[in-house]
Amino acid sequence: MAQAYLTETGSDGQGPERRGSRLRRLLDGWRGDRGIWRRGLILGALAVILALVMLLHAQIPNTIGNLGSLTETFLPWLGLIIPVLLILAFVRKSATALIAVLLPAIVWLNLFGGLLTDKTAGGGDLTVATHNVNADNPDPSGTARDVAASGADVLALEELTATAVPVYEKALASTYKYHSVQGTVGLWSKYPMTGAQPVDIKLGWTRAMRATVTTPNGQVAFFVAHLPSVRVKLEAGFTARQRDKSADALGEAIADESIKRVVLLGDLNGTMNDRALNAVTAQMRSTQGAAGSGFGFSWPASFPMARIDQIMVKGIEPVTSWTLPETGSDHLPIAARVKVDATAS
């Protein structure tokens, strides 16, 4: 009776032997099937094309609807196609497709695998934050309090309207002794600020500024920018000509900066992968890429799909970078902790 009992309980379908038999049956279904190399050729071709798109994204031309920049803006999301191709390869029982799917997987990991690791660290001596507050923000006072609660020593705000500026100034007055608003962008600081002035990014009105902040470890040049918006139109594709022109002008202003330590805060309406921002990204480091955890997507706030809000540094070491909770804006605020070398000139 005891032996019969053991036999029954051992065949309940939950043990490792039953699971092992399922795996053996799956492998047996493939073993000896010569068709596994002939099936799934189309799937394999799609996998190779996906790998090439990610690997050669910089070669996709912008001449037609800025297709290259559009691809680069949402480049990380192409990785979602990989598991779909993998499942289809299993369903088709195609060894050819399975091997081909390895190609885009390797390319994706090479491009973005580093963002999956946590590179945040402790320390640092200056916290900075930036937020596109949205011109139609229904609660500017609450938004100001939320971003101030991040502990930022220096805070940049973009998309400020004339009617909302006094609200932000009042809400932030107790936290930040120094501030300057230039056009639709502003900079608030706990440390002395001098030399605040507009930066011409070829728009005809002010959406960028520069100021010197004297931190406990020396002077730092701060740039705040809100580059022109981009649009995806059926008849014109990814329209970004004015954004690209402004990015080039911003890059020139940063390159001409006499202070060696520079921080750029703002809504650049583009990701670090977007070639149109090369004039800026080629000379600065993203705090998220260098010291963040994950992709740090900031837009749209309801379902973030891209990091178009940026904190970038030159001559300064990023320590940690993160995304702040949602406010009344359609963007998420972002923050970073950096180390300012007191010995650097």
Which properties best describe this structure?
single chain, six-stranded mixed beta sheet, 14 strands, transmembrane
What does this structure look like?
It holds the Pfam family Exo_endo_phos. Residues 1-20 are annotated as: Disordered. Helix 3 (41-55) runs parallel beside helix 6 and helix 7 (140-148) runs parallel beside helix 8 (165-172). With 345 residues, the chain is of the alpha+beta class. Mean pLDDT is 89; it is low at 1-11 and 234-238. The strands form 3 sheets. Strands 3-4-2-1-14-13 form a 6-stranded mixed β-sheet. Helix content is 33%, strand content 23%. The relative contact order is 0.13.
Low-confidence stretches: 1-11, 234-238
End-to-end separation in angstroms reads 87 Å
**What coarse outline follows from CA principal-axis ratios?**
elongated
Give the strand order, joined by hyphens, for the main sheet: 3-4-2-1-14-13
Radius of gyration: 26 Å
Reading the helices and strands in chain order gives HHHHHHEHEHEEEEEEEHEHEHEEE
Number of helices: 11
The percent range for strand residues is: 15-25%
Walk me through the topology.
Blueprint: H1 2-9, H2 16-30, H3 41-55, H4 67-73, H5 81-91, H6 95-112, E1 126-132, H7 140-148, E2 154-158, H8 165-172, E3 178-182, E4 185-189, E5 193-198, E6 208-215, E7 218-226, E8 231-233, E9 237-239, H9 241-255, E10 262-267, H10 278-281, E11 285-286, H11 287-291, E12 309-314, E13 317-323, E14 334-339
Parallel strand pairs: 1-2, 7-10
Antiparallel strand pairs: 1-14, 2-4, 3-4, 5-6, 6-7, 8-9, 10-12, 11-12, 13-14
Helix pairs in contact: 3-5, 3-6, 5-6, 7-8
